[in-house]
Amino acid sequence: MKTSDFYYELPEELIAQTPIEPRNASRLMKIDRGSGEIIHDRFYNLCRYLKKGDLLVLNNSRVLPARLYGEKCDNKTFIEFLLLEQKGNMIWEIICRPGKKAKVGTKFSFGDGIMTAEVIEVLESGNRIVQFSCDGNFFNVLEKIGQMPLPPYIKEKLENSERYQTVYSKEPGSAAAPTAGLHFTPEMLDEIKEMGVNIAYVTLHVGLGTFRPVKVEDISEHKMHSEHYFLPKETADLINKTKAEGGRVIAVGTTSCRTLESVATFFGEFSEREGYTDIFISPGYKFKALDGLITNFHLPESTLIMLVSAFLGYEKTMNAYKIAVDEKYRFFSFGDAMIIL
To answer: Average of pLDDT values for 191-200?
Structure first.
């Protein structure tokens, strides 16, 4: 298939710029995976579509305040860092701007000197490997001086940074939020458990590659970015139990989906696993873990809409997106959701 097959017209005013309040007041499009039938609802009614014995799998990764503004130590000129991936003890791969100021050996200061960094390697991609130094816990200092790296299509300032975190976020490491989970409230999670639906967690640290466009016309030639994941034993056991008892495994978000499908594809079973995945799920892929998917509405020509098309079917997916535009759903990170069952 061609990248252009996944294009759709989206009026700019439908790109959600701010999160809705309360979290679960967003709209929910329920889509029947077999027939393509669509029901329009609200996310707070999600339990209508769940059954006792189902399993929801959520990504508990927490977004880092990964954007740092600082200065060169020798001449106080401006520098911007964006943390991408931890490589060692306070060693990170970063994007920096302006890059010409960040040669090997150059030192930078952030937060009036409470954190410093030295460039130790320049990669072929132009990214840098830097060694940070600070007193105390690195992540605690980062929480004080870092800023949330909102997607480029969000132009408005986020007043409360916790609104770009899920209420169950726990493991710091993402450069972007697993946005399908932004709709849940603690009360909803309790309600879901009370009706006999199990909840389990995986960790996949979302990289900035999630926003990178597909640049090849033939999607089979696309090289997916790699992301770190962890599937704990208790989650693997719940998946196996759910499958054995005839329940449905429902992934909350494409990141949870990619984690489960990576383990199923590469290992053929569900057990505790940790590693990196660059799995690219597109039409023609045979799902091995998922029976349902909760997700937001994604960018045209993105790997994420291709994943949804693989699960729901290409024609049904593009029809659902057309209806979402016609019905003025809110799109992307702070937008509305769909559930496919």
So the answer is: 98
Output the average pLDDT for the chain: 96
Residues 130 and 40 occupy one common structural domain: no
Q: Are residues 124 and 206 located together in one domain of the fold?
A: no
Burial (CB < 10 A; 0-12, 13-18, 19+), residue 80, is middle
Rounded Cα distance, 289 and 286, in Å? 9
The pTM assigned to this predicted structure is: 0.92
Q: How far apart are CA 104 and CA 79, in angstroms?
A: 15
- Reply yes or no on whether the pLDDT at 211 is more than 70: no
Separation of alpha carbons 180 and 253, rounded Å: 5
Following CA atoms 65, 70, 72, 73 in sequence, which dihedral angle do they give, to the nearest 10 degrees?
-100
Q: Are residues 90 and 54 in the same domain?
A: no
Residue in the block written with tokens 């130790």: 120
Q: Quick count: other Cβ atoms within 10 Å of Cβ 191? A: 15
The structure tokens listed for 331 are: 């799109």
* pLDDT for 257 beyond 70: yes
Residue 101 pLDDT > 90, yes or no? no
